[in-house]
Amino acid sequence: MTNSCNVIQSESMPPRQNEQIIRLLAVAAFQKSHGYERVIASLAQYYHGSVDRKIELYLVGYGDETIKYKKMVRQYGLEQYVFFCGRKVGLELDHIYDRMDIALGLFGAYKRKLYSSSALKVREYLAKGMPIASGCHEDAFEQEKNYKYYLEFSNDDSVIDMQRIVDFYKSVYEANTEREQIHKEIREYAKKTVDLSVTMQPVIKYICS
């Protein structure tokens, strides 16, 4: 039986800074192009080796791929590391965001022959102040190459090196910067690059010209 997301609803959860746990978040309607089977398979490989840091995956939403993901979790024996939260909105979703460390973009874009993503979900992650890891180039980061709060993996079906996730987490959260300051910097980046007031500027200029 796969795990539910009840652990996330506990208001007494210890502060993340004091835990040796990295929490990954994917919010989606789980279609083939999301490709989170790559992440699940990579977690299985990670836990069969030398574990640097405990990693948990929280899947929020429901879609055609959910049953496959649950089957993989059972097959790999990852029930204590992967949590299926179902659809969440409003305050429930906000509480989940508040307890996560890294948000996940697309990991199956290659299935649709997409080589660059303009996913709205990534923009929502940025607005929430979340560092992002993705298995596809995200155009939200084109204005700042090597953005320190973004980690990009190859756009194919290969297994992910989860140690890179661990190293990314350490570079973000263990660099003597307060977590709230990190979230603030990411939200400020979102305002500069993907906010509607910015993305609509070319349209406004065209209309006013």
Structure, explained:
Helix 2 links the parallel strand 3 and strand 4. Strands 1-4-3-2-5-7-9 form a seven-stranded parallel β-sheet. The chain has a two-stranded parallel sheet with strand order 6-8. By secondary structure, the chain is of the alpha/beta class. Helix 1 packs parallel to helix 2. The chain is globular and about 45 Å long. Helix content is 37%, strand content 16%. The N and C termini lie far apart (61 Å). The protein is built from eight helices and nine strands.
Summarize the structure.
37% of the residues lie in helices and 16% in strands.
Key terms for this structure?
209 residues, alpha/beta, 8 helices, 7-stranded parallel sheet, two-stranded parallel sheet, 9 strands
Mean of pLDDT: 86
What is the string of helix and strand elements?
Answer: EEHEHEHEEHEEEHHHH
Number of helices: 8
Low-confidence stretches are 7-15, 195-209
> How many beta-strand elements?
9
Strand content: 15-25%
Rg on CA atoms, Å:
17 Å
Fold blueprint:
Elements: E1 3-4, E2 21-27, H1 37-47, E3 54-60, H2 66-76, E4 82-86, H3 90-98, E5 102-104, E6 116-117, H4 120-127, E7 132-134, E8 137-138, E9 150-152, H5 162-173, H6 179-193, H7 196-199, H8 201-208
Parallel strand pairs: 1-4, 2-3, 2-5, 3-4, 5-7, 6-8, 7-9
Helix pairs in contact: 1-2
